[in-house]
Amino acid sequence: MKKLACILGLFLALGLSATSSSVAAEELKSLRGAEAVKGDVPSENYRYERDKATQQRQYVQQPPLIPHTTKGYLITKEFNKCLDCHSWDRAAETGAVRVSVTHFKTREGKELSNISPRRYFCVQCHVPQTDAKPLVGNNFKPAAGLVK
Asked: Alpha carbon of 42 to those of 69, 122, 126, 138: distances in Å?
């Protein structure tokens, strides 16, 4: 019985290593061309906007875009750099937009005295504006109620 289990384990290991090597042999391709995007580093394809007017939203419930660079902003469970300007007690002083009241509610709708943990990490929804060109063509049109 042990011998059979050992042989099955060997075949399984060989099968998995053959599969992973064939996947690794395929090259990753980027929609932007031959060069893959490398993290948070601006390239010739786009650059972060610095202190620009906020772009108009394109659909209902779209999180607002960030009209400034966030490079180097620290957001951990202990500290959130965004709140230095956007917290309710600092927004008037800094001229920044206050965090929405929706960010102070739990999933069940209970109001909290501080930002909900599920809304604390700003960049999971909000992204900095860029002058990026579309990766692929599309015919998207903004929601009719949002057009000026």
From this structure: 11, 20, 18, 24
